[in-house]
Amino acid sequence: MRAVIWVALFGCFAVLAASYGGALHPLGDSLAVFRLHIGLACIGASSIGLRLHRLVGIGGLLASGTALIPVLVTTFIAFDYAPRPASLYQKNMLFQARDLSPLIDDIREAQPDALTLQEVTPVNAAMLTALANALPSQLICPFARVGAVAVASRWPLIEGQEICLEGQGLAAIQVTSPNGPLWIVSIHLHWPWPKPQAAQRTRLLPILKDLQGPVLIGGDFNMVPWSHSLRSITRATDTQRIGRAFNSMTRFALAPLPIDHILVPEGATGSTELRPLLGSDHHGILARFDFPRP
């Protein structure tokens, strides 16, 4: 029995350590999705381990607790919803056909300056037509069988400043915001390893890094905030993730999936709020933010 406990203890921490290895192999980011669950398992194993070796058990509790702090802070820290001068509404629409009027009403109620969408199909793309009076600057870019990515804004489009990477999950437009030229980007990443998220991200990073000026990104990243994948994108674009790590996807009840995110220019301040599902398996996320000061 003692041997089983030791194997469970060290095995648990080996998996926890591997969840930080996304820069070495995409399996690391796949494990990072479940870091909360792995960390809790390690706390349980360490508590049992106290009976076998006090120092090892205490060390295990400290290590697993330290690993969980960023996850818990990102997930549960409170943000105010004070009025801000700029806003972005992010939504994975779900490719299945349905009545989109509740989603249209919610977007109109939120009155965002920018909108980023994923899983845009020929049927649900009609929503963008319905919103064209409020968000006239629009771009839809084909991605995968589940649908295209799209971006829209009420701010005027800068002529010639559009990027559509067909089949790569990225659509971007540059607009004239109150703070000057601003890139607005919609991203839809594949699922992580063994799916091809890492290869897709590698192809997108040079494009994102070459964007000149401030960048605002909304997307279904299919990845958690504390992952190497998300950090690499924020570094490439001089952005920062804003708001709490909401459980934005409801498909897997036992595993919270904060995988929809909004990235704002480095130095911007603000908050996010969760919007209703409205027929999708992803919640919408609304970010309100201030532009960074020059």
List keywords for this structure.
single chain; 294 residues; alpha+beta; Deoxyribonuclease I, Chain A; 2 domains; six-stranded mixed sheet; 8 helices; 12 strands; elongated
Describe the structure.
With 294 residues, the chain is α+β, with helices and mostly antiparallel strands. The protein has two domains: 2-76, no CATH class; 86-290, 4-Layer Sandwich (Deoxyribonuclease I, Chain A), CATH 3.60.10.10. It is 34% helix and 28% strand. Strand 3 (137-144) and strand 4 (147-153) form a beta hairpin. The longest helix is centred in the first third of the chain and has 23 residues, at 54-76. 45% of the residues are buried.
**Widest β-sheet, arrangement of strands:** 3-4-2-1-12-11
How is the biggest beta sheet arranged?
6 strands, mixed
Please report which band the strand proportion falls in: under 5%, 5-15%, 15-25%, 25-35%, 35-45% or over 45%.
25-35%
Helix and strand pattern? HHHHEHEHEEEEEHEHEEEE
Mind telling me the CATH class of the largest domain?
Answer: Alpha Beta
How many domain units? 2
Structural class: alpha+beta
- CATH homology superfamily name of the largest domain: Endonuclease/exonuclease/phosphatase
Distance between the termini: 62 Å
Taking pLDDT < 50 over at least 5 consecutive residues as the criterion, the unreliable ranges are none
Number of helices: 8
User: How many individual β-strands?
Assistant: 12
CATH topology of the largest domain, what is it called? Deoxyribonuclease I, Chain A
Radius of gyration, CA atoms, in whole angstroms: 20 Å
